[in-house]
Design brief:
The complex is a heterodimer of chains A (162) and B (731). Chain A is mainly beta. Chain A has one domain: OB fold (Dihydrolipoamide Acetyltransferase, E2P) (Beta Barrel). Chain A is built from three helices and eleven strands; from the N terminus they run E-E-E-E-E-H-E-E-E-E-H-E-E-H. With 731 residues, chain B is an alpha+beta fold. In chain B, 37% of the residues lie in helices and 25% in strands. In chain B, strands 8, 9, 16, 17, 18 and 19 form a six-stranded mixed β-sheet that branches. In chain B, a hairpin with a 2-residue loop joins strand 23 and strand 24. The N and C termini of chain B lie far apart (78 Å). The chains are: A mainly beta (162), B alpha+beta (731).
């Protein structure tokens, strides 16, 4: 693949009928199936943990994270495992497409057109002839998780503090 | 010369090496002070300083070069016998070590030498080398510990580890710095690399388990599988050991610390170190460094008496301070023992009462051992009153917190007049942890075994303990005690709450000072066999490799990590402190419990009521002035409070549910108000229903204190919470 400063290598994937992409450099691995261990009381977007060669990797359901509904005919759900410093995360997406080199000049830095939840993670949009690719910042995808809804905690007794 | 990036790496290496060299220098100097004629020691010191000087030239650190050059010159004169070693010279050499350390620290953080000015020191070293008389070296280097009290009038004299008799430990301490530890036999390895080895071994364990589950009759395959099994176990054990390091790394700093401290506090201290080769996980070594330093400082500053006082008490002038480390039942125990004045228990007791930690009556009843535990209370000992009476523990609460954070414990023993022993126990490693794997709903979870006290099967109809519902606060009655419990499945949202549950098992855990029960479905075999609930399978204690779960999940605050079991399944390890917090369980320290116990004897009579929300509560009868039935229309809002008017008097009224931290239920037309006599006039508590007056059948259990609750006791055969009316009621 052509590599130059003028282009950016991104890995494209689909969630809820929309196209997204992250820098391919941060992608550690793509898994097509994995046993998930649920994490009770985790933020809603975290659907579980997967075990990847000795690492425990939290799985973020991108549909929930971006608050998008399922698109008909989502081909093959896949885990896009990304590295973020010491922590690894898996983004559960509807379908992993391809790695493209897209010209930097073609990336429009304006906000997303796919909803509020996506807006805070989208850093730019690249227009292909047939579709818009929303470039995501994995860092922001992760950071916003805790601001999202968390299932209510079942409490015993009373709360503290008078 | 080397390239910029390479250079950085070399500098890093230089820093690490030099820091080790400096520790060695400290030890050598202390040994030299005791045996000024030791030529080999002097030569070793000379070589070390020479090496640092050489390296600093290579990297262009001119200040470091200049100061070490002066030092080297002086050492050369000493070595050649042109100059005799005396206090002034050793003092200057200590200053040299400190100066080098300061410069290295600056290089480490900024990459540059910084604006240290050691020209005075350099001059002094040079003058000494020339045999000129010099001013006595300033002692500020000894005051690494700022704000220590000035030394008493007695002449300053420090004697470290001078063996008056050939006591073995003392010898060892002096000899510890003697030979350089065999650098040839060890290599530096990146910690991350060791981590990956552990991960890979974990993978291997899984593969082995798969192999085991493959049914075969072929004896050759079975034999091979058996061998792989044995090797894998050994490999895992060895891999874990690579993370261990001798505790020496912490202990080695202490001879110098103690020496300086003894000088500045006017004490004579004889330090002995034992068990420095006891091994501990690298990360834990770092974590115990500060707490141990604190304990050592306390022992010198507050434990060991000034020489004159000791002499007057018939003790040797030099106090003994012993540091010991040893392995004990899978944990590492570290003792800091002094033969000083001990802790004045009476002073601690008075202080505890004064601070309201315990009532005066209860304090008298508590044994000395329990009283001593108060020194670990936050802010307890900063008070001068205790310190001046030879109490100790400036910041003992911090020591305790830090040690407990790594799963350890601290306890203190003191014999008045004879000394104090502080015993710290920490796990060998945090990378490997024994856990109890339990089943809750459809999930498996792990509970750190260190916290588990007991497993109690629930058998309501078969005479076993039952869960009693203290409306919204379930408890289990165990050998006369009421303990709060958490239904793990409900708590984690794995299953909807059910009214009454008498099945499963209570895992009784203790975290810090709190004991509570976790109700689980069963204890599950880690091999992942048919999920048994029999307690016989409690043997499914398993030693697992703890994996970090990443910042995202750590923020939930309920999980300490995760692990992969033998069957390949991922299991979350519960953070019991987090659960204690999140479940809002009754939080009461035993020390407080004693005071409540003492102040409320059993046999007292209580008014039992139901709150508007239906919670069963009790109020001590003696506190009640009268009962009233008030119409809702008689309640008025006055200054943000609700009051009921009786003649000219307004009695504030507060809803019992609000006292309990919940929202008051909708009120009916008439309200029952229990009017309590208080120091500031009567106060009314609105309740839903008044049930009865009953004499207590059990002592108050203060461990059940939740918001607004003082404790719980059995009334009419039912566990009932006693409303806390001791403070100002938030009317």
């Amino acid at each position: 693949m052509l590599k130059s400063d003028d282009t950016r290598d991104v890995c494209e994937f689909r969630v809820g009928g929309h196209s997204f992409a992250i820098d391919s450099e941060g992608v550690a691995e793509v898994l097509h199936s994995a046993a998930l261990t649920p994490v009770p009381l985790a933020p809603e977007a975290i659907v579980g943990l997967l075990h990847l060669r000795g690492r425990i990797v939290p799985v973020i359901d991108m549909r929930r994270r971006l608050e998008l509904s399922a698109a008909p005919g989502a081909a093959a759900p896949a885990h896009l495992v990304v590295r973020r410093a010491e922590d690894w995360y898996s983004l559960l997406v509807d379908e992993v497409l391809d790695v493209h080199a897209i010209p930097r000049a073609g990336i429009e830095p304006h906000a997303s057109s796919v909803g509020d939840a996506a807006a805070d993670a989208v850093t730019g949009v690249f227009a292909c002839p047939d579709r818009l690719i929303h470039i995501l910042d994995p860092e922001r995808v992760v950071q916003a998780i805790h601001r999202q809804r968390t299932p209510p905690l079942v409490r015993h007794g009373v709360t503290h503090g008078r | 010369m080397v390239g910029a990036n390479d250079n950085e790496e070399f500098v890093q290496e230089f820093l690490v090496e030099s820091s080790e060299n400096l520790d060695q220098l400290d030890r050598d100097l202390i040994a030299l002070e005791q045996a000024p004629g030791d030529e080999a020691r002097l030569a070793s010191i000379f070589r070390t300083v020479h090496t640092i000087k050489g390296n600093s030239g290579f990297f262009g650190f001119s200040k470091l070069g200049a100061i070490t050059h002066s030092g080297e010159h002086l050492l050369g004169r000493l070595r050649d016998g042109k100059l005799a070693l005396d206090d002034r010279v050793t003092g200057s050499l200590y200053s040299l070590v400190d100066a080098v350390r300061a410069i290295l620290r600056t290089i480490e953080t900024t990459g540059k030498e910084g604006d240290h000015d050691f020209r005075d020191l350099a001059q002094r070293l040079t003058a000494m080398a020339a045999g000129e008389p010099t001013e006595p070296p300033p002692r500020e280097h000894a005051l690494e510990i700022a704000a220590e009290p000035p030394p008493p009038a007695a002449p300053v004299e420090a004697e470290i580890a001078a063996p008056p008799e050939p006591a073995a430990p003392a010898e060892r301490a002096a000899g510890a710095g003697g030979e350089r530890s065999g650098g040839e036999a060890s290599i530096r390895v990146d910690v991350g690399l060791v981590g990956s080895i552990l991960d890979l071994v974990g993978e291997l364990v899984l593969a082995r388990n798969e192999l085991r589950s493959v049914a075969t009759d072929d004896p050759a395959v079975l034999a091979a599988a058996h061998r792989i099994n044995a090797v894998t176990n050994a490999l895992q054990e060895t891999a874990v050991k690579t993370r261990l390091q001798p505790i020496e790394q912490v202990f080695n700093k202490f001879p110098r610390t103690v020496r300086d401290l003894a000088v500045s506090c006017g004490r004579e201290v004889q330090l002995s170190i034992d068990g420095g080769d006891t091994e501990l996980d690298r990360t834990l070594i770092e974590s115990i460094r500060d707490p141990l330093t604190h304990l050592v400082r306390n022992a010198v500053d507050h434990g060991i008496e000034p020489p004159d006082v000791r002499a007057a008490r018939g003790k040797p002038r030099a106090g003994r301070l012993a540091l010991r480390a040893f392995n004990e039942s899978g944990q590492v125990t570290i003792e800091v023992e002094d033969d000083g004045g001990g802790i004045a228990v009476a002073a601690v007791r008075d202080k505890a009462v004064a601070k309201g930690l315990v009532s005066a009556e209860a304090a008298v009843a508590l044994p000395d051992e329990r009283i001593l535990q108060f020194i670990f209370e936050p802010g307890f000992s900063t008070a001068a009153a205790v310190t001046s009476v030879s109490g100790r523990g400036v910041g003992m609460d911090v020591v305790k917190t830090n040690i407990e954070a790594i799963g350890g414990t601290v306890d203190v023993h003191s014999r008045p007049g004879l000394g104090t022993t502080v015993r710290v126990r920490v796990p060998l490693t945090l990378a490997i942890m024994p856990v109890l794997v339990v089943r809750s709903g459809s999930e498996r979870l792990a509970i750190p075994q260190a916290a588990v006290r007991e497993l109690v099967p629930l058998k309501g109809d078969r005479g076993g303990p039952r869960i009693e519902g203290l409306d919204g606060a379930p408890v289990v009655r165990l050998r006369g005690r009421l303990l709060p419990v958490v239904f793990l499945d409900e708590f984690l949202g794995l299953r909807a709450a059910t009214a009454c549950r008498d099945e499963g098992t209570v895992v009784l855990v203790r975290v810090d000072d709190h004991e509570f029960g976790i109700v689980i479905d069963g204890v599950r075999t880690t091999a992942g066999g048919a999920g048994g609930t029999a307690i016989g399978e409690a043997a499914s204690l398993s030693t697992v490799v703890v994996k970090p779960i990443g910042g995202l999940l750590a923020q939930i605050g309920l999980y300490a990590g995760a692990t992969v079991l033998g069957d390949g399944g991922v299991v979350l390890i519960l953070d019991l402190r987090g659960i204690l917090r999140a479940a809002a369980l009754p939080v009461v320290r035993e020390s407080e419990a004693a005071s409540v116990e003492a102040s409320l004897a059993s046999g007292d009579r209580y008014l039992v009521c139901r709150t508007g929300r239906g919670r069963r509560i009790a109020l001590p009868l003696e506190a009640i002035e009268r009962l009233e039935n008030v119409r809702a229309s008689e309640l008025h809002a006055l200054g943000g409070r609700r009051v009921v008017r009786r003649g000219d008097a307004f009695t504030p009224v507060v809803d019992a549910d609000r006292l309990l931290g919940t929202v008051a239920a909708a009120e009916s037309d008439t309200i029952n108000v229990v009017v309590l006599g208080g120091p500031a006039g009567p106060v009314g508590v609105a309740v839903g229903q008044i049930l009865d007056v009953i004499a207590a059948e059990s002592p108050l259990q203060p461990s059940l204190v939740a918001a607004g609750v003082r404790g719980a006791l059995a009334l009419g055969g039912v566990a009932t919470e006693v409303l806390d009316i001791s403070g100002d009621l938030p009317c």
